[in-house]
User: What shape does this take?
Amino acid sequence: MSWLLLVLAGLVEVAWSQSIKPTQGFTRPLPTLVCALLMIGAVYLLARSMEGLPVGTAYAVFTGIGAIGAITLGVLVHHDPVSPGRLAAVALIVGGVALARVTTPAG
Assistant: This one.
């Protein structure tokens, strides 16, 4: 259950990262509220996952999922540039998340 909560936390973090720009510097009330709720939700789910997982593993996987999601959406939605270096970075993050998963006891 802890791993499921952690994956959900990471996915909410991806949504949160995408919700920041529409706030226009936190000057738009409704987008700012959505952003704040997503942030709270991501941190809540992360905290719940830490009840059964080591803090370091949970946080590293959480930020890894967030980074992978943010980069992927940046490329697909916002047409961010793709380069061999960025692809290598994503591959290393995916590898790190997978390695953390297989070497951490189930929670």
